[in-house]
Design goal:
single chain; 479 residues; mainly alpha; two-stranded antiparallel ribbon; two-stranded antiparallel sheet; 18 helices
């Protein structure tokens, strides 16, 4: 990553000194552990569905709620954390999320009933929701504009790495134990150990968070200007740079009150346009159906004739493709901007979803009532699915979180993230909960036709409503 010089005018003298990249990378990397846990907690459910059905004797609707229950917690966590972070700080909320990750991972594995499991998953959802909005917001608030896109994209790499790690962990545990439902160590089924693996990265996250600084922009918002000046001095070491940045941040927030939900309204009492754009970004990211692949991937591929082992391996391949796509986005997002990546991602998803619809439309039923694809259509479905995953993680996966973390002005960032986060996780819940019922009612082809329709709409949304944010300082974001 090339060095970007920080320029500050002081009288007749211009002082130039590069920001401390190593320090910024370190603190951003700690924040992205929250993204890793977000991904792991979201993906671990993928390999445990059969175990949950067997342990709790749940039907398709009950299973759908067991899987999607976490997302209710995510919606509440994202909505609450965005606003609470303006009151208590980004760092404190991330510490609380780390504790919730630990408790949820332990409780989900030890649960003896569906209700108990849902309670622990809701607690994990609060942590995921909080981390999903606070980690990118924290990164955006400590990173220089020229690096912000790439550093924020690392968050998506961490999310996908968490998903990938969950898929690998699930696969290995199922292979070693014999299946997800087989008893393993200490008489507990392998699916329970799939949840307990998450406790290790959650503990690392909790310890590492103790050592990172608070966001200087939060400190300005909370009127802690002296601490803000100290932290800005670590991020902008040039002579006079920290003082100049402090004045710039102070000028971007209201002098007469701290951030509040009323700031989401313009002078005419209407919701600001930027908030609607944030909601649109959050909702479209889910309506294209990506989390059906992540949450129900094993079930989906088994439903068209693949074995449990093969289905779990396909998940691993999809996870590797996702990481590769995020790395491509990492290299392009600050060079070409956010809007071009969103446009090409939407177009690519629309085409690949159409290919999956064609493949699933050709499926036939075997004597046991399971869908079966021909070798040719099975290859088409696998190729299209992984291309779809690539296009998503090249575009909407990282770019949506990057933009939500940076697009809102300082005064409304917490409240804007709260509303957009609620919309994102609410639509995630609706898509995830509805998939089993849609699968039973209209089949895979019909279900994926719905996701294809929203992918096409997302192209129009990007063209009409998305403005480029690359290269702008957070204090320059239009409200």
């Amino acid at each position: 990553m090339e060095a970007i010089e920080s320029q500050v005018n002081r009288g007749d003298t211009e002082v130039q000194e590069p920001p401390p990249l190593a320090f910024i990378l370190l603190i951003c990397s700690v924040a992205t552990i929250g993204g890793f846990l977000f991904g792991f907690d979201s993906g671990v459910i993928n390999g445990t569905i059969d175990g949950l059905q067997n342990a709790f004797d749940s039907n398709s609707v009950g299973t759908g709620f067991n899987v999607s229950s976490m997302l209710l917690g995510c919606a509440v966590g994202a909505f609450s954390a965005g606003r609470m972070a303006d009151i208590w700080g980004r760092k404190r909320l991330l510490l609380l999320a780390a504790i919730f990750f630990l408790v949820s991972a332990w409780g989900s594995g030890i649960a003896s009933s569906s209700l108990e499991f849902v309670i622990y998953r809701l607690l994990g959802g609060l942590a995921v929701g909080a981390a999903s909005v606070l980690s990118p917001a924290y990164i955006s608030e400590v990173a220089p504009a020229a690096w912000r896109g790439r550093l924020s994209t690392i968050q998506q790499v961490a999310i996908i790495s968490g998903l990938f790690s969950a898929f690998v962990s699930n696969y290995l545990l199922a292979q070693v134990a014999g299946s997800a439902m087989t008893e393993w160590w200490y008489g507990y089924e392998a699916w329970r150990w799939m949840f307990w693996v998450e406790m290790l990265p959650a503990a690392v996250f909790l310890v590492a968070l103790v050592w990172i600084p608070e966001s200087p922009r939060y400190l300005v918002i909370s009127r802690q200007d002296s601490r803000a000046r100290t932290e800005l001095g670590r991020l902008y070491p040039g002579q006079g740079a920290a003082d100049a940045k402090l004045r710039e941040v102070q000028a971007s927030v209201a002098e007469d009150h701290r951030p509040r939900f009323a700031d989401l309204l313009d002078s005419a009492g209407r919701i600001r346009g930027i908030i609607w754009v944030g909601i649109g970004l959050a909702v479209f990211q889910q309506l294209v159906g990506i989390n059906v692949v992540f949450y129900y991937g094993a079930v989906l591929w088994q439903s068209v004739g693949f074995s449990e082992s093969d289905a779990l391996m396909i998940n691993i391949i999809s996870g590797a493709v996702s990481i590769g796509a995020c790395l491509v986005a990492l290299g392009l997002i600050d060079r070409f901007g956010r809007k071009p990546l969103l446009f090409f991602g939407s177009a690519g998803m629309a085409v690949t979803l159409a290919m999956m619809v064609v493949a699933f439309s050709s499926a036939s039923l075997d004597q046991g009532g399971k869908l079966v694809l021909s070798d040719q259509m099975g290859l088409l479905a696998l190729t299209a699915a992984n291309a779809y995953v690539f296009f998503f993680n090249f575009s909407w996966g990282p770019v949506m979180w990057v933009m939500l973390g940076e697009m809102f002005p300082n005064q409304v960032r917490g409240s804007g993230l709260a509303v957009a986060g609620l919309a994102q996780w609410g639509s995630n819940f609706a898509i995830t909960l509805s998939f089993p019922a849609m699968l039973a009612a209209i089949g895979l082809a019909g279900t994926y036709s719905v996701y294809m329709f929203f992918a096409i709409l997302s192209v129009l949304f990007v063209v009409r409503w998305i403005n480029e944010t690359a290269g702008l300082e957070l204090e320059q974001m239009p409200g």
